[in-house]
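Reopening: Divalent metal cation transporter still failing for me.
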Amino acid sequence: MKTTNRSILIGAAFLMATSAIGPGFLTQTTVFTETLAASFGFVILISIIIDIGAQMNIWRIIAVSEKRAQDIANDVLPGLGYFLAALVVAGGLAFNIGNIAGAGLGTNVLLGIDPKLGAILSGVLAIGIFTVKEAGRLMDRFTQLLGFVMIALTIYVMFTAQPPVGEAVAKTFAPDTIDFLAIVTLVGGTVGGYITFAGGHRLIDAGLKGKAALPEVTKSSVYAIGVASIMRIFLFLAVLGVVAQGLPLDDGNPPASVFQHAAGQVGYKIFGVVMWAAAVTSVVGAAYTSVSFLRSFSPVLEKYHRWLTISFITISTLVFVFVGQPVSILVLVGSVNGLILPIALGVMLVAAHKTKIVGDYRHPSWMTIFGAIIVVAMAYMGVITLINGIPQLFS
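Support: Ran it again with your exact input. Result attached.
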């Protein structure tokens, strides 16, 4: 594989992974670990399986069709692409408000400045990435660097928390309880909404597409889930170590109390770094991907897509500054994004079997079956969540 292609594939993987690892990711993992304890390992295992199945299907179909998801959807059914774009952009904007909030919180912990000022400064940094000529390459490097930083610091905190690893492994395969809301939320927070399309659209924009690229695209899609999952597992173990000791978590900021309990004041500062890095990389990923769903609808939008991206970040920042973002909403948005997944994946699976979209490409039957099972399972769990689960977040 050429070095350039390898760089693009790794960049796409980290863009997707760091888009998933945001403030909501940290909050969801902490809240559900506190509730389910070691049994949350089962939720993580199931979500990883679903994530891989969904992402492999979507990235391959985008690559072989050489089109972005909204254009594929419009080819499946005229107007469907606009509907999918509306869902993704709305979800991306909601998530990005939470991402900006997380960036503000991270700077507050690190520097002691007002979270709103920290959010504004972080927004300006994210905007700066899209003002340079080589924005795509800079975005790749930025997300890779901060991705490594987040994982390394979380591993350190995990070791200081001394989690009951044996119990975690046992409950991963024999849980005390199965929580549909947790599964839908984790999948939604990892491959729901705009997130799974982040890397796929990045590959299209970088020119890495077509049947010849499929082996590398598939590896990159799994690698992306691997990066996000490693972060999820280490954070889960860190929280479990704290919870197992009977230490209370702060309802207003659960992840921060985990880092502080595990490693004292140093841990609290580490949380600031992790929260800021998770937030600002997610701001970049959400803005880039959400705007990528609009670019192909008009030559004007394509021409000025950078300004659209800058506007997206600006709007997200202003909404946070004037409205704010509570913990419960970060969890809720992950659940809603999980409901978008069966629609998006279902559309991609139909497209995979239309020759006018994929030409003579033959999508593997096992992938279609795997994807269809995920569509049905996520739709079912999503409905159950809507009926029974979400109101519990606000009770």
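The chain has a mean pLDDT of 86. If you still see a failure, please send the error message rather than a screenshot.
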